[in-house]
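**Sequence with structure:**
===
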Amino acid sequence: MTDERLPDEILRDMQSLIDFLGAHPELPLPKSFDFAVYELGVEDLDLAKTIAKALGTFDKETAERFFSLIKRFGRVSLRFVFYRDNVCTKRVIGTKQVTEMVPAPGAKMVERTVETEIVEWNCPSLLADDEASTA
């Protein structure tokens, strides 16, 4: 079977998981479920807006490279993950010196100071065409 599963198959598989856990009360239950949907490489702002509108209310989470829209159902989450630079605009607003530990030949670790960018991300509102927010 390929990674490209039909939506009905995935929903059946999720129901099978629910049925299995219900039929085996002797098994400890997970504390939470986080279903992640990745379309890395094909996502863009239009897709993010379409998903946001379908979700209605959602949480946003950002990481250095990723941007997620999360719909929560109690302890079950449905997470849509995008590359942040496909949805938001990266602006370098300065630089800073950072000291880090790196491996070196003949030594376990050495300190090195590097210059890194100070970045601000401008992300448009996904529910309104003319608003912008920073995330």
